[in-house]
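Reproducibility note. Readers wishing to regenerate the assembly model reported in the main text can use the exact inputs given here. Chain order matters: entities are listed in the order in which they were concatenated for prediction.
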Amino acid sequence: MKKNLRLTAVLGAVALVLAACGGTEGTDTTAAAAELELVTAGTLTVCTDTPYFPMEYIDESGNYTGFDIELMRAIADDLGLTLAVSEPGWDAITSGLAFEARECDVAAASITITAERAEAIDFSTPYFISEQSLLVRDDSGIASIDDTAGKEIAVQTGTTGHYYAEDEAPEGTIIVEFPDPDSPWLALESGDVDGVMTDLVATQGWSSNRIGFTIVGTFEPEEYGLATKGAPNLLEAINASLAKLRGDGTYDRIFDDFFSVA
Amino acid sequence: MSMTRRQRSKLGRGILYLVAVAIVAVAVFAADWERIGRNFFNLETARDMLPQVLTVAAKNTVIYAVLSFGIGLVIALILALMRLSPVRPYRAFAIAYIEFFRGLPALVTLILFGFGIPIAFDFRTPGGRVGAAVLGLSVVAGAYLAETIRAGIEAVPRGQREAARSLGMSETRTMFTIVLPQAFRIMIPPLTNEMVLLIKDTSLFFVIGSTPATRELVKFARDFMQGQRNATPLTVIAIVYLLITLPLTYLVRRLEKRTGRGR
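Running the prediction on these inputs yields the following C-alpha coordinates for the assembly.
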Protein backbone atom coordinates (compact mmCIF):
# COMPACT_ATOMS: atom_id res chain seq x y z
CA MET A 1 0.00 0.00 0.00
CA LYS A 2 2.91 2.34 0.68
CA LYS A 3 3.88 1.75 -2.93
CA ASN A 4 0.51 3.03 -4.04
CA LEU A 5 0.90 6.17 -2.01
CA ARG A 6 4.21 6.73 -3.70
CA LEU A 7 2.52 6.39 -7.09
CA THR A 8 0.10 9.13 -6.15
CA ALA A 9 2.99 11.22 -4.99
CA VAL A 10 4.68 10.84 -8.37
CA LEU A 11 1.49 11.72 -10.21
CA GLY A 12 0.98 14.73 -8.02
CA ALA A 13 4.53 15.84 -8.66
CA VAL A 14 3.92 15.57 -12.41
CA ALA A 15 0.88 17.78 -11.99
CA LEU A 16 3.01 20.26 -10.17
CA VAL A 17 5.63 20.44 -12.92
CA LEU A 18 3.01 20.63 -15.67
CA ALA A 19 1.13 23.40 -14.02
CA ALA A 20 4.24 25.28 -13.01
CA CYS A 21 5.19 25.44 -16.70
CA GLY A 22 1.81 26.79 -17.74
CA GLY A 23 1.27 29.00 -14.70
CA THR A 24 1.33 32.79 -14.70
CA GLU A 25 3.95 34.86 -12.94
CA GLY A 26 3.53 35.16 -9.17
CA THR A 27 2.15 38.62 -8.41
CA ASP A 28 1.26 40.54 -5.33
CA THR A 29 -2.32 39.42 -5.15
CA THR A 30 -3.20 41.01 -1.83
CA ALA A 31 -4.12 44.31 -3.44
CA ALA A 32 -6.48 42.52 -5.80
CA ALA A 33 -8.45 41.13 -2.87
CA ALA A 34 -10.32 44.41 -2.64
CA GLU A 35 -11.96 43.87 -6.04
CA LEU A 36 -13.03 40.29 -5.43
CA GLU A 37 -16.73 39.94 -5.00
CA LEU A 38 -16.83 37.65 -2.02
CA VAL A 39 -19.82 36.10 -0.30
CA THR A 40 -18.51 37.50 2.98
CA ALA A 41 -16.07 40.41 2.76
CA GLY A 42 -12.60 39.50 3.94
CA THR A 43 -13.38 35.79 3.92
CA LEU A 44 -12.71 33.18 1.28
CA THR A 45 -15.65 30.81 1.63
CA VAL A 46 -14.65 27.40 0.31
CA CYS A 47 -17.14 24.68 -0.51
CA THR A 48 -16.10 21.09 -0.15
CA ASP A 49 -17.57 17.62 0.32
CA THR A 50 -16.24 15.49 3.16
CA PRO A 51 -15.10 12.94 4.14
CA TYR A 52 -12.80 12.26 1.20
CA PHE A 53 -9.58 11.29 2.91
CA PRO A 54 -6.91 12.56 2.51
CA MET A 55 -8.15 15.36 0.24
CA GLU A 56 -10.83 16.85 2.54
CA TYR A 57 -11.98 15.60 5.89
CA ILE A 58 -12.73 16.70 9.44
CA ASP A 59 -9.99 15.79 11.87
CA GLU A 60 -10.37 14.47 15.41
CA SER A 61 -10.55 17.95 16.91
CA GLY A 62 -13.38 18.92 14.56
CA ASN A 63 -11.42 21.07 12.12
CA TYR A 64 -11.50 20.85 8.36
CA THR A 65 -8.25 19.65 6.87
CA GLY A 66 -6.89 17.60 3.99
CA PHE A 67 -4.80 18.50 0.99
CA ASP A 68 -7.49 20.62 -0.68
CA ILE A 69 -8.33 22.49 2.52
CA GLU A 70 -4.73 23.25 3.41
CA LEU A 71 -4.06 24.38 -0.16
CA MET A 72 -7.06 26.73 0.08
CA ARG A 73 -5.80 27.96 3.44
CA ALA A 74 -2.52 28.86 1.81
CA ILE A 75 -4.31 30.58 -1.08
CA ALA A 76 -6.53 32.51 1.34
CA ASP A 77 -3.43 33.59 3.29
CA ASP A 78 -1.80 34.69 0.06
CA LEU A 79 -4.86 36.75 -0.86
CA GLY A 80 -5.04 38.24 2.63
CA LEU A 81 -8.35 36.54 3.39
CA THR A 82 -9.67 34.36 6.19
CA LEU A 83 -10.68 30.81 5.28
CA ALA A 84 -14.21 29.56 5.90
CA VAL A 85 -15.44 26.13 4.85
CA SER A 86 -18.97 25.16 3.86
CA GLU A 87 -20.54 21.88 2.70
CA PRO A 88 -23.55 22.38 0.43
CA GLY A 89 -23.39 18.83 -1.00
CA TRP A 90 -21.69 17.47 -4.08
CA ASP A 91 -24.61 18.01 -6.47
CA ALA A 92 -24.90 21.64 -5.47
CA ILE A 93 -21.19 22.22 -6.09
CA THR A 94 -20.88 20.57 -9.50
CA SER A 95 -24.18 21.95 -10.78
CA GLY A 96 -23.18 25.47 -9.79
CA LEU A 97 -26.23 25.90 -7.54
CA ALA A 98 -24.04 26.44 -4.48
CA PHE A 99 -22.49 29.44 -6.21
CA GLU A 100 -25.83 30.79 -7.43
CA ALA A 101 -27.10 30.49 -3.87
CA ARG A 102 -24.08 32.53 -2.70
CA GLU A 103 -23.02 29.62 -0.53
CA CYS A 104 -19.37 29.79 -1.53
CA ASP A 105 -16.72 31.71 -3.44
CA VAL A 106 -14.73 28.73 -4.58
CA ALA A 107 -15.03 24.96 -4.39
CA ALA A 108 -12.10 22.71 -3.53
CA ALA A 109 -13.42 19.16 -3.48
CA SER A 110 -11.19 16.97 -5.66
CA ILE A 111 -13.33 18.02 -8.61
CA THR A 112 -12.12 16.47 -11.84
CA ILE A 113 -12.16 18.96 -14.69
CA THR A 114 -14.61 17.74 -17.34
CA ALA A 115 -16.11 19.50 -20.34
CA GLU A 116 -19.61 18.88 -19.03
CA ARG A 117 -18.91 20.40 -15.63
CA ALA A 118 -17.09 23.32 -17.25
CA GLU A 119 -20.45 24.36 -18.72
CA ALA A 120 -21.81 24.93 -15.23
CA ILE A 121 -18.74 26.09 -13.29
CA ASP A 122 -15.43 27.79 -14.07
CA PHE A 123 -12.27 25.81 -13.34
CA SER A 124 -8.87 27.05 -12.23
CA THR A 125 -5.67 25.70 -13.73
CA PRO A 126 -5.29 22.03 -12.75
CA TYR A 127 -3.72 21.58 -9.33
CA PHE A 128 -3.63 17.81 -8.92
CA ILE A 129 -3.62 14.63 -10.97
CA SER A 130 -5.30 11.43 -9.91
CA GLU A 131 -6.69 8.38 -11.69
CA GLN A 132 -9.92 6.45 -11.63
CA SER A 133 -9.68 3.19 -9.69
CA LEU A 134 -11.71 0.11 -8.86
CA LEU A 135 -11.28 -1.39 -5.41
CA VAL A 136 -12.97 -4.75 -4.69
CA ARG A 137 -13.38 -7.15 -1.83
CA ASP A 138 -10.97 -10.07 -2.31
CA ASP A 139 -13.81 -12.60 -2.13
CA SER A 140 -15.90 -10.79 -4.75
CA GLY A 141 -14.46 -12.80 -7.64
CA ILE A 142 -13.67 -9.60 -9.56
CA ALA A 143 -10.20 -9.55 -11.11
CA SER A 144 -10.75 -6.62 -13.46
CA ILE A 145 -13.48 -4.22 -14.52
CA ASP A 146 -14.58 -6.79 -17.12
CA ASP A 147 -15.81 -9.14 -14.35
CA THR A 148 -18.38 -6.82 -12.78
CA ALA A 149 -21.51 -8.04 -14.59
CA GLY A 150 -24.06 -9.01 -11.94
CA LYS A 151 -21.90 -7.46 -9.20
CA GLU A 152 -22.67 -4.32 -7.24
CA ILE A 153 -20.25 -1.44 -7.61
CA ALA A 154 -20.72 1.52 -5.27
CA VAL A 155 -20.14 5.08 -6.43
CA GLN A 156 -20.88 8.59 -5.23
CA THR A 157 -23.56 10.13 -7.43
CA GLY A 158 -22.27 12.51 -10.07
CA THR A 159 -18.57 11.75 -9.64
CA THR A 160 -16.22 10.77 -12.45
CA GLY A 161 -16.12 7.30 -10.87
CA HIS A 162 -19.90 7.11 -11.35
CA TYR A 163 -19.67 8.15 -15.01
CA TYR A 164 -16.68 5.90 -15.66
CA ALA A 165 -18.50 2.89 -14.22
CA GLU A 166 -21.56 3.69 -16.32
CA ASP A 167 -19.49 3.97 -19.48
CA GLU A 168 -16.88 1.28 -19.04
CA ALA A 169 -18.28 -1.47 -16.80
CA PRO A 170 -19.86 -4.36 -18.72
CA GLU A 171 -23.61 -4.68 -19.27
CA GLY A 172 -25.37 -6.01 -16.18
CA THR A 173 -23.14 -4.25 -13.65
CA ILE A 174 -25.31 -2.92 -10.83
CA ILE A 175 -24.17 0.60 -10.03
CA VAL A 176 -25.24 1.57 -6.53
CA GLU A 177 -25.30 5.30 -5.89
CA PHE A 178 -24.69 7.10 -2.62
CA PRO A 179 -25.09 10.82 -1.96
CA ASP A 180 -21.87 11.39 -0.02
CA PRO A 181 -18.28 10.28 -0.54
CA ASP A 182 -18.10 8.09 2.56
CA SER A 183 -21.13 5.80 2.15
CA PRO A 184 -19.63 3.70 -0.68
CA TRP A 185 -16.88 2.72 1.75
CA LEU A 186 -19.40 1.87 4.47
CA ALA A 187 -21.36 -0.25 2.01
CA LEU A 188 -18.16 -2.05 0.97
CA GLU A 189 -17.20 -2.61 4.59
CA SER A 190 -20.67 -3.95 5.45
CA GLY A 191 -20.43 -6.44 2.57
CA ASP A 192 -23.39 -4.78 0.88
CA VAL A 193 -21.50 -4.14 -2.38
CA ASP A 194 -18.60 -5.85 -4.13
CA GLY A 195 -16.47 -2.88 -5.04
CA VAL A 196 -16.08 0.90 -5.10
CA MET A 197 -15.18 3.03 -8.10
CA THR A 198 -13.61 6.35 -7.22
CA ASP A 199 -10.41 8.37 -7.55
CA LEU A 200 -7.19 6.52 -6.77
CA VAL A 201 -6.10 9.07 -4.20
CA ALA A 202 -9.16 8.31 -2.04
CA THR A 203 -9.02 4.57 -2.68
CA GLN A 204 -5.47 4.51 -1.39
CA GLY A 205 -6.39 6.66 1.57
CA TRP A 206 -9.12 4.23 2.57
CA SER A 207 -7.45 0.90 1.79
CA SER A 208 -3.97 1.65 3.11
CA ASN A 209 -4.83 0.40 6.61
CA ARG A 210 -7.30 -2.36 5.69
CA ILE A 211 -6.84 -5.92 4.53
CA GLY A 212 -9.10 -8.02 2.34
CA PHE A 213 -9.44 -5.42 -0.42
CA THR A 214 -7.51 -5.04 -3.66
CA ILE A 215 -7.26 -2.36 -6.32
CA VAL A 216 -7.94 -4.34 -9.48
CA GLY A 217 -7.67 -1.51 -11.93
CA THR A 218 -6.62 2.09 -12.39
CA PHE A 219 -7.85 4.07 -15.34
CA GLU A 220 -7.59 7.43 -17.10
CA PRO A 221 -5.58 10.14 -15.39
CA GLU A 222 -7.80 13.01 -14.23
CA GLU A 223 -6.97 16.61 -13.43
CA TYR A 224 -8.52 18.33 -10.44
CA GLY A 225 -9.50 21.97 -10.61
CA LEU A 226 -10.72 24.54 -8.12
CA ALA A 227 -14.10 25.87 -9.19
CA THR A 228 -15.81 29.25 -9.15
CA LYS A 229 -18.78 30.66 -11.01
CA GLY A 230 -19.27 34.11 -12.44
CA ALA A 231 -16.24 35.48 -10.56
CA PRO A 232 -13.48 36.09 -13.14
CA ASN A 233 -11.44 38.34 -10.83
CA LEU A 234 -11.42 35.74 -8.10
CA LEU A 235 -10.51 32.97 -10.53
CA GLU A 236 -7.62 35.04 -11.86
CA ALA A 237 -6.40 35.75 -8.34
CA ILE A 238 -6.62 32.07 -7.43
CA ASN A 239 -4.71 31.00 -10.51
CA ALA A 240 -2.00 33.54 -9.79
CA SER A 241 -1.85 32.43 -6.20
CA LEU A 242 -1.62 28.75 -7.20
CA ALA A 243 1.32 29.51 -9.44
CA LYS A 244 3.01 31.47 -6.68
CA LEU A 245 2.54 28.68 -4.11
CA ARG A 246 4.03 26.20 -6.52
CA GLY A 247 7.00 28.47 -7.12
CA ASP A 248 7.82 29.17 -3.49
CA GLY A 249 7.60 25.57 -2.22
CA THR A 250 4.35 25.97 -0.26
CA TYR A 251 2.54 23.52 -2.54
CA ASP A 252 5.31 20.95 -2.02
CA ARG A 253 5.18 21.35 1.72
CA ILE A 254 1.40 20.79 1.85
CA PHE A 255 1.73 17.90 -0.57
CA ASP A 256 4.33 16.23 1.65
CA ASP A 257 2.09 16.68 4.68
CA PHE A 258 -0.56 14.46 3.13
CA PHE A 259 1.27 12.19 0.71
CA SER A 260 4.83 11.77 1.94
CA VAL A 261 5.78 8.13 2.45
CA ALA A 262 8.45 8.84 5.05
CA MET B 1 -58.19 60.07 22.23
CA SER B 2 -60.11 57.10 23.38
CA MET B 3 -61.40 54.28 21.23
CA THR B 4 -64.04 51.73 21.83
CA ARG B 5 -62.92 48.14 22.09
CA ARG B 6 -64.37 47.47 18.64
CA GLN B 7 -62.45 50.34 17.06
CA ARG B 8 -59.25 49.15 18.71
CA SER B 9 -59.60 45.61 17.38
CA LYS B 10 -60.48 46.99 13.94
CA LEU B 11 -57.36 49.15 13.97
CA GLY B 12 -55.24 46.20 15.12
CA ARG B 13 -56.53 44.01 12.34
CA GLY B 14 -55.97 46.80 9.81
CA ILE B 15 -52.34 47.09 10.86
CA LEU B 16 -51.87 43.31 10.53
CA TYR B 17 -53.28 43.42 6.99
CA LEU B 18 -50.97 46.30 6.06
CA VAL B 19 -47.95 44.41 7.40
CA ALA B 20 -48.92 41.31 5.43
CA VAL B 21 -49.40 43.30 2.23
CA ALA B 22 -46.07 45.05 2.77
CA ILE B 23 -44.24 41.75 3.22
CA VAL B 24 -45.77 40.32 0.06
CA ALA B 25 -45.00 43.50 -1.87
CA VAL B 26 -41.36 43.50 -0.75
CA ALA B 27 -41.04 39.83 -1.69
CA VAL B 28 -42.55 40.45 -5.12
CA PHE B 29 -40.41 43.47 -5.92
CA ALA B 30 -37.17 42.20 -4.41
CA ALA B 31 -37.33 38.87 -6.21
CA ASP B 32 -35.41 38.35 -9.42
CA TRP B 33 -38.30 36.80 -11.37
CA GLU B 34 -36.27 36.04 -14.45
CA ARG B 35 -33.81 34.04 -12.35
CA ILE B 36 -36.54 32.29 -10.38
CA GLY B 37 -38.27 31.32 -13.61
CA ARG B 38 -35.06 30.00 -15.13
CA ASN B 39 -34.20 27.98 -12.03
CA PHE B 40 -37.54 26.74 -10.74
CA PHE B 41 -39.96 26.74 -13.67
CA ASN B 42 -37.94 25.48 -16.58
CA LEU B 43 -40.56 23.71 -18.72
CA GLU B 44 -37.99 21.86 -20.78
CA THR B 45 -36.51 20.26 -17.66
CA ALA B 46 -39.98 19.40 -16.40
CA ARG B 47 -40.81 17.71 -19.70
CA ASP B 48 -37.58 15.71 -19.58
CA MET B 49 -38.60 14.28 -16.22
CA LEU B 50 -41.73 12.72 -17.65
CA PRO B 51 -42.74 9.96 -17.63
CA GLN B 52 -40.04 8.53 -15.33
CA VAL B 53 -40.85 10.86 -12.47
CA LEU B 54 -44.20 9.05 -12.29
CA THR B 55 -43.42 5.53 -13.56
CA VAL B 56 -40.28 5.09 -11.46
CA ALA B 57 -39.89 7.73 -8.75
CA ALA B 58 -43.47 8.34 -7.64
CA LYS B 59 -44.28 4.65 -7.95
CA ASN B 60 -41.32 3.69 -5.74
CA THR B 61 -42.18 6.38 -3.21
CA VAL B 62 -45.73 5.05 -2.87
CA ILE B 63 -44.62 1.40 -2.75
CA TYR B 64 -42.02 2.14 -0.04
CA ALA B 65 -44.53 4.11 2.02
CA VAL B 66 -47.28 1.49 1.71
CA LEU B 67 -44.92 -1.38 2.60
CA SER B 68 -43.51 0.52 5.57
CA PHE B 69 -47.02 1.36 6.71
CA GLY B 70 -48.21 -2.25 6.41
CA ILE B 71 -45.26 -3.78 8.26
CA GLY B 72 -45.28 -0.90 10.73
CA LEU B 73 -48.96 -1.49 11.46
CA VAL B 74 -48.31 -5.15 12.33
CA ILE B 75 -45.40 -4.17 14.60
CA ALA B 76 -47.56 -1.45 16.13
CA LEU B 77 -50.51 -3.71 16.84
CA ILE B 78 -48.29 -6.17 18.68
CA LEU B 79 -46.62 -3.32 20.58
CA ALA B 80 -49.93 -1.71 21.51
CA LEU B 81 -51.31 -4.97 22.87
CA MET B 82 -48.06 -5.50 24.81
CA ARG B 83 -48.29 -1.93 26.08
CA LEU B 84 -51.78 -2.61 27.47
CA SER B 85 -50.93 -6.09 28.69
CA PRO B 86 -51.14 -6.93 32.39
CA VAL B 87 -47.75 -8.69 32.03
CA ARG B 88 -45.14 -6.24 33.24
CA PRO B 89 -42.15 -7.34 31.04
CA TYR B 90 -44.36 -6.95 27.95
CA ARG B 91 -45.31 -3.44 29.01
CA ALA B 92 -41.69 -2.60 29.76
CA PHE B 93 -40.50 -3.86 26.38
CA ALA B 94 -43.21 -1.98 24.50
CA ILE B 95 -42.47 1.27 26.34
CA ALA B 96 -38.72 0.90 25.78
CA TYR B 97 -39.19 0.19 22.06
CA ILE B 98 -41.64 3.03 21.52
CA GLU B 99 -39.58 5.60 23.39
CA PHE B 100 -36.34 4.49 21.71
CA PHE B 101 -37.51 4.70 18.11
CA ARG B 102 -39.70 7.76 18.63
CA GLY B 103 -36.71 9.50 20.17
CA LEU B 104 -34.37 8.86 17.23
CA PRO B 105 -34.46 10.73 13.94
CA ALA B 106 -35.72 8.39 11.19
CA LEU B 107 -32.49 9.11 9.33
CA VAL B 108 -30.42 7.61 12.15
CA THR B 109 -32.58 4.48 12.21
CA LEU B 110 -32.22 4.13 8.44
CA ILE B 111 -28.43 4.40 8.59
CA LEU B 112 -28.50 1.91 11.48
CA PHE B 113 -30.36 -0.61 9.36
CA GLY B 114 -28.47 0.21 6.17
CA PHE B 115 -24.91 0.21 7.49
CA GLY B 116 -24.74 -0.30 11.26
CA ILE B 117 -26.45 -3.67 11.66
CA PRO B 118 -24.90 -5.20 8.49
CA ILE B 119 -21.39 -4.21 9.64
CA ALA B 120 -21.93 -5.31 13.24
CA PHE B 121 -23.70 -8.63 12.69
CA ASP B 122 -22.85 -9.57 9.10
CA PHE B 123 -26.60 -9.58 8.51
CA ARG B 124 -28.29 -9.05 5.11
CA THR B 125 -31.84 -7.73 5.10
CA PRO B 126 -33.98 -9.58 2.55
CA GLY B 127 -34.57 -7.25 -0.35
CA GLY B 128 -31.12 -5.67 -0.11
CA ARG B 129 -30.86 -1.94 0.41
CA VAL B 130 -34.51 -1.29 -0.32
CA GLY B 131 -35.41 -4.04 2.16
CA ALA B 132 -33.18 -2.49 4.81
CA ALA B 133 -34.66 0.94 4.23
CA VAL B 134 -38.26 -0.30 4.31
CA LEU B 135 -37.55 -2.33 7.44
CA GLY B 136 -35.92 0.69 9.10
CA LEU B 137 -38.87 2.93 8.30
CA SER B 138 -41.34 0.19 9.38
CA VAL B 139 -39.60 -0.02 12.73
CA VAL B 140 -39.94 3.74 13.16
CA ALA B 141 -43.56 3.70 11.96
CA GLY B 142 -44.27 0.84 14.40
CA ALA B 143 -43.26 3.02 17.33
CA TYR B 144 -45.49 5.93 16.32
CA LEU B 145 -48.44 3.78 15.22
CA ALA B 146 -48.33 1.80 18.48
CA GLU B 147 -49.20 4.92 20.41
CA THR B 148 -51.98 5.74 17.92
CA ILE B 149 -53.45 2.27 18.29
CA ARG B 150 -53.19 2.36 22.06
CA ALA B 151 -55.00 5.69 22.17
CA GLY B 152 -57.63 4.26 19.83
CA ILE B 153 -58.17 1.19 22.01
CA GLU B 154 -58.43 3.31 25.13
CA ALA B 155 -60.95 5.58 23.42
CA VAL B 156 -63.44 2.72 23.01
CA PRO B 157 -65.94 3.11 25.86
CA ARG B 158 -65.18 0.76 28.73
CA GLY B 159 -68.78 -0.46 28.72
CA GLN B 160 -68.23 -2.19 25.37
CA ARG B 161 -65.57 -4.42 26.80
CA GLU B 162 -67.48 -5.05 30.01
CA ALA B 163 -70.59 -6.00 28.05
CA ALA B 164 -68.66 -8.42 25.86
CA ARG B 165 -66.97 -10.01 28.86
CA SER B 166 -70.28 -10.37 30.69
CA LEU B 167 -71.65 -12.18 27.62
CA GLY B 168 -68.93 -14.76 28.24
CA MET B 169 -66.44 -13.70 25.53
CA SER B 170 -62.77 -14.35 26.24
CA GLU B 171 -60.38 -11.43 26.73
CA THR B 172 -58.76 -12.10 23.31
CA ARG B 173 -62.07 -12.42 21.49
CA THR B 174 -63.32 -9.24 23.10
CA MET B 175 -60.20 -7.39 21.94
CA PHE B 176 -60.29 -8.63 18.34
CA THR B 177 -64.03 -8.68 17.64
CA ILE B 178 -65.39 -5.87 19.84
CA VAL B 179 -62.69 -3.37 20.80
CA LEU B 180 -60.28 -3.26 17.82
CA PRO B 181 -62.95 -2.84 15.09
CA GLN B 182 -64.34 0.17 16.93
CA ALA B 183 -60.87 1.44 17.77
CA PHE B 184 -59.78 1.36 14.11
CA ARG B 185 -62.68 3.59 13.16
CA ILE B 186 -61.47 6.15 15.67
CA MET B 187 -57.90 5.68 14.48
CA ILE B 188 -58.43 6.24 10.77
CA PRO B 189 -57.60 9.98 10.79
CA PRO B 190 -54.37 9.65 12.82
CA LEU B 191 -53.37 6.57 10.80
CA THR B 192 -53.79 8.53 7.58
CA ASN B 193 -51.64 11.28 9.04
CA GLU B 194 -48.94 8.72 9.75
CA MET B 195 -49.19 7.53 6.15
CA VAL B 196 -48.53 11.08 4.95
CA LEU B 197 -45.51 11.29 7.24
CA LEU B 198 -44.19 7.98 5.87
CA ILE B 199 -44.55 9.15 2.27
CA LYS B 200 -42.35 12.10 3.14
CA ASP B 201 -39.87 10.01 5.13
CA THR B 202 -39.12 7.81 2.11
CA SER B 203 -37.18 10.85 0.88
CA LEU B 204 -34.43 9.72 3.27
CA PHE B 205 -33.91 6.36 1.57
CA PHE B 206 -31.24 7.52 -0.85
CA VAL B 207 -28.69 8.00 1.93
CA ILE B 208 -28.18 4.26 2.23
CA GLY B 209 -27.73 3.76 -1.49
CA SER B 210 -29.85 3.53 -4.58
CA THR B 211 -29.78 2.23 -8.14
CA PRO B 212 -31.55 3.87 -11.09
CA ALA B 213 -34.46 1.45 -10.66
CA THR B 214 -34.90 1.97 -6.90
CA ARG B 215 -34.87 5.77 -6.86
CA GLU B 216 -37.65 7.59 -5.05
CA LEU B 217 -38.73 11.16 -5.78
CA VAL B 218 -36.00 13.10 -4.00
CA LYS B 219 -33.12 11.07 -5.40
CA PHE B 220 -34.70 11.29 -8.83
CA ALA B 221 -34.93 15.07 -8.57
CA ARG B 222 -31.34 15.35 -7.40
CA ASP B 223 -30.18 13.37 -10.42
CA PHE B 224 -32.02 15.76 -12.69
CA MET B 225 -30.62 18.79 -10.90
CA GLN B 226 -27.17 17.39 -11.52
CA GLY B 227 -27.82 16.91 -15.23
CA GLN B 228 -29.95 19.96 -15.96
CA ARG B 229 -28.20 22.48 -13.75
CA ASN B 230 -31.35 24.09 -12.40
CA ALA B 231 -33.76 23.61 -9.51
CA THR B 232 -36.90 22.84 -11.55
CA PRO B 233 -36.82 19.13 -10.60
CA LEU B 234 -37.56 20.24 -7.03
CA THR B 235 -40.64 22.12 -8.21
CA VAL B 236 -41.79 19.08 -10.15
CA ILE B 237 -41.42 16.62 -7.28
CA ALA B 238 -43.00 19.10 -4.87
CA ILE B 239 -46.05 19.03 -7.10
CA VAL B 240 -45.98 15.21 -7.26
CA TYR B 241 -45.67 14.96 -3.47
CA LEU B 242 -48.63 17.28 -3.07
CA LEU B 243 -50.64 15.27 -5.60
CA ILE B 244 -50.08 12.24 -3.39
CA THR B 245 -50.40 13.80 0.06
CA LEU B 246 -53.12 16.43 -0.43
CA PRO B 247 -55.90 13.90 -1.22
CA LEU B 248 -54.86 12.01 1.92
CA THR B 249 -54.91 15.07 4.17
CA TYR B 250 -58.22 16.09 2.60
CA LEU B 251 -59.54 12.63 3.41
CA VAL B 252 -58.40 13.05 7.01
CA ARG B 253 -60.34 16.29 7.33
CA ARG B 254 -63.46 14.68 5.90
CA LEU B 255 -63.14 11.67 8.18
CA GLU B 256 -62.50 13.82 11.22
CA LYS B 257 -65.66 15.78 10.49
CA ARG B 258 -67.66 12.60 10.05
CA THR B 259 -66.39 10.83 13.17
CA GLY B 260 -67.09 14.05 15.02
CA ARG B 261 -70.70 13.87 13.81
CA GLY B 262 -71.12 10.17 14.52
CA ARG B 263 -70.37 10.53 18.19
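We highlight two features of this model. The CA atoms of residues 52 and 181 of chain A lie 6 Å apart. Residues 13-29 of chain A have pLDDT under 50 and may be disordered.
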